[in-house]
């Protein structure tokens, strides 16, 4: 047998991003810029968000923020669709803009020499999109195709059904991507109005990581976006509170012609701002992540051989995103898998995790940090995270202490706060159940 | 022992294990990849899917690292590990904090020889693998590609998918799995490639200590039967639920070592956009590619992608189209054919060539960003060629001319050399 070392990893704090290596600056129009240099490869990543998403959409409007974000790159006052994509593809660059529930995310990548090309284009598509009718109609048709494919995807259908069960009458019950009936109704006017009312620099964050000097990155972002204003911008409504499920809420979505069922099971979980978020993350890791899927993986995959994948997630966004378990199983194994998963949840909320389990998972959280931060994308994502949740520039340097401070009592107390094996939303999609 | 471009050390242990080491000191990480020359190419009817199943069994324990201990040990050190089985190879990797890499090396040396293949583990893994296959079967694109691949290879063992046929997964025995493992998991059939924050000399010493004692095995000889040239276009149709038609057109193309591979890479870039040869690297958009413009801007399709794989034996260049529900795959095929005719009739523009090169250079830079990817490349090119292939990749692409692209278009893009696959949705199969 190999000897296991049970001490927590000791990271070289100076090697982690911190106040000494991250530069942060706020522009007068409200845009926050963070930059970190990395000259190990000749590329640069930009990553950022705007405070606009699907939050506030009604069922009839679902998908409007998503379609608007996709429409931005379909034409501007300066360039046509083809000119936009010729400008980035001809230099091997990438620029994607996509909306979620709370924010619209920007992801770009280029050779460092082309950073300005990327930022100029970003500025143009955010500030001066023209939403040409023919382009929007084509985009809608592409989205309707994607939604038709989603209709046949057991994982996506189970997730939609879960959101409807777990978040009844709450904004999180709606798909931020929308539905076929809503997408087909959007017009260039609705998209243009949404853009005018909701897009603006206030609260926007842009991170630049790569082979560009930080000061030069600041200058480039400021030149591209520093003069953007939109005083008429309307903020999203506040997020309403959510009640936990009462009893076992179940929904089966019948999909004929499939071989396997997907199960999504869980409950609203902690927000990233919740003081117990770290304890919930560690508890979740023990429940359904550590090694090959933690305790749930052991029970459902390794022991029972029921599933290729069975794992849990805590979403931890700005609101009560789901704490959920996802599994893909044969139709004959669905009930057994659900029982096994509920047993593991019951165990997590009734018995403290072992000292060894907690220590192993804490070691994993700390030890994996350098791996998460090895690429420009990883660093950019980390910087975006600390800005979005006001964690402080020294967050990753404090991170090992924050992880190590969580106790077994914290884990069970937090698990009890959010999880109850007898009060869950359970959605199944696949070749079972009644035909809709 | 040689030390080449970017100070990569290449050597071979006495037992035949090939070693590639590259020091990179940008982050306190090391990525270790061990590559075995075995994949679904080495299988035949009755044992299809066996290489992939063996890969699963390699996570099920040895006397030193019993089942479950492996996962915990890697995870608690903050490492990331996984395995990939492909048609030509099987690879296991661990990316670890630099001071913990010894665990990964111990583990790989141990499971090259000592995996147990406990019958109870084989039994529970059978249902896991069947579940994995059933997950694939839920996807129309998998079902279509499986039929297209089978139609493209009547004789060669590229005939079946890596996951294998259900008929074999249901009956394959523990002894067959173990025999496959012992036959192919020998040091003289493997390449160990490591990149990251280490010093070459002590790393090599440690590798010799751990892997040196593993005995050389008989060289696993396996020569698949060559696929004869097609004598006419083949077509397959798959029916299933949904409302979205899919079109998959594949052409027989030469292996990675063939000089035509490079003009074909440029052709793919012009036709369907630049592709990333790395198995988990991101790609870039393809909205200025010829087929995107013809199919998506032509309002027949929602998306189109192409794919060229660097393989040992001649494989396939694949064009995949997601057709809009208000059109048919046949309409999309007409447009594909029209674009292919243009490629065959006249050379590509110099601007297109320049763009393809810049895209390749950018993707290459992106791929070099992470230590995991750098270690991947060290070993990957050895599976179908050698390290020179990777080191000269951009230079050889730069030598491609529009005339070369015209030449390979003529040579490979004829209907006689292709299989056309159509997924025909059957909306009457109820979907929720």
Number of folding domains of chain B? Answer: 2
Question: How many strands in all of chain A?
Answer: 11
Instruction: Classify the helix fraction of chain B into a percent range.
Output: 40-55%
From the alpha-carbon coordinates, what is the Rg of chain B to the nearest angstrom?
Answer: 22 Å
Q: Biggest interface and its residues per chain?
A: A-B, 84 and 84 residues
- Which second-level CATH architecture of the largest domain in chain B applies? 2-Layer Sandwich
Mean pLDDT of chain B: 93
Residue-averaged pLDDT of chain A: 94
CATH class of the largest domain in chain A: Alpha Beta
Strand content of chain A: 15-25%
3D architecture notes:
The complex is a heterodimer of chains A (436) and B (432). Chain A is α+β, with helices and mostly antiparallel strands and 436 residues long. Chain A has 2 domains: 19-225, Metalloenzyme, LuxS/M16 peptidase-like (Cytochrome Bc1 Complex, Chain A, domain 1, 2-Layer Sandwich), CATH 3.30.830.10; 248-430, 2-Layer Sandwich (Cytochrome Bc1 Complex, Chain A, domain 1). In chain A, 42% of the residues lie in helices and 17% in strands. Chain A is built from 16 helices and 11 strands. A 6-stranded mixed β-sheet of chain A has the order 1-2-6-3-5-4, with helices on both faces. Chain A has a 5-stranded mixed β-sheet with strand order 7-11-8-10-9. In chain A, helix 9 (277-288) crosses helix 10, helix 9 packs across helix 12 (355-367) and helix 9 (277-288) crosses helix 16. The radius of gyration of chain A is 23 Å and the shape is globular. Chain B has a 7-stranded mixed β-sheet, with helices on both faces. In chain B, strands 8-12-9-11-10 form a 5-stranded mixed β-sheet, sandwiched between helices. The N and C termini of chain B lie far apart (62 Å). In chain B, strand 1 and strand 2 (8-12) form a beta hairpin. Chain B has 2 domains: 7-211, Cytochrome Bc1 Complex, Chain A, domain 1, CATH 3.30.830; 234-425, Metalloenzyme, LuxS/M16 peptidase-like (Cytochrome Bc1 Complex, Chain A, domain 1). Chain B is globular, with a radius of gyration of 22 Å. With 432 residues, chain B is an alpha+beta fold. In chain B, 42% of the residues lie in helices and 19% in strands. Classes of the chains: A alpha+beta (436), B alpha+beta (432).
